[in-house]
């Protein structure tokens, strides 16, 4: 619409041609009005986007969107024909704007529908040309732009029409071929993705079964080592005690690793996690309780700042508490003695932002992008803390993404890290 008004103004004022401005502006206003209606309509059918090509959409919805697109393109072609008629007919060089509509039609519609739209275009264009030629419609000559009126010259009409018709069909043929190929590729990518997801599920089930078995054996080993370590089965000499203690400690670590592996696999396999309303304030406080003793041992101060109007949110309370506790435990673990950890919870419209900042060892810049990957541990963390699963953050990521939230980190090596979680309420 703006384009039409600007072009008419330019042609009138700068080029100096006289045009019938009233019908031209009226058509422009009509064009703007019905396009707005279509925009609102299509958004109400598919609020996410105008994805007429999305194959995951239901058939009924897709066919409705196709029908809307078809109607809108047909109306645009009618408007353009009217604009062309009031501004010189066949003498107007803007007749090639029909090609844009053909390309859009080929992208959005089926090949058959695009060729039908092309035929409709040619019909509209020729109707104007022949009605003006026969004197049944008035001709608005572009005086000053063309040397003499061309709409009555059969040779000019034939030549222009030949170029126009061939351009329209070639444009539709090429655009429809390209978009057809793209649509095909999109479909095969979607299929490959489904296959990959299925393979991933099979792998997770396998991991779940194996880690479950390992956990049972580990429990049995712990059950045997416990009584020996505590001396129930008889006094141990120092050498024996040392070996048993080491074996018991290693079994403990292995057990927590297997538990983490089981947990992340279970989250991955569960299609839905149970949600409900819970108090985020209490959950943060409970998570702090879990790490307080360890922080005290290292003389690390924990400071909390929760905005007063923060309270209930919807989610899986146990998972959220575990995630916050996990991040806090990491902050305490990777912060040297005497440091500090700050927790802030703020309202962000429909979401809450939870941030945990520490004055710890930080994360090397080049390793930040890999931090949430399974089993990943940064090199500086491995140096100061030999044990660790590298699974805590990937579990946190899974949990937050299941809540349609976002988790990220900002950090500078040697200065500290800030982990942020954005959770929809
Ligand atoms: P783990 O702590 O068992 O190694 P996580 O998945 O919880 O496993 O963390 C992965 C890695 O992220 C850690 O090994 C460490 O390199 C880094 N990391 C996590 N939290 C912090 C933190 N607060 N400060 C510095 N590094 C961190």
Describe this structure in words.
- This protein has 3 domains: 2-196, no CATH class; 202-269; 276-424, Histidine kinase-like ATPase, C-terminal domain (Heat Shock Protein 90), CATH 3.30.565.
- Helix content is 61%, strand content 11%.
- The chain has helices at 2-15, 21-45, 59-85, 98-108, 111-133, 154-230, 238-269, 280-297, 317-333, 379-384, 392-402, and strands at residues 276-279, 301-306, 312-315, 340-348, 351-358, 406-412, 416-424.
- The strands form 2 sheets. A 5-stranded mixed sheet has the order 2-4-5-7-6. Strands 1-3 form a two-stranded antiparallel ribbon.
- Helix 1 packs antiparallel against helix 2.
- It starts with a helix and ends with a strand.
- The relative contact order is 0.06.
- The protein binds adenosine-5'-diphosphate.
- Adenosine-5'-diphosphate binds next to helix 9 and helix 11.
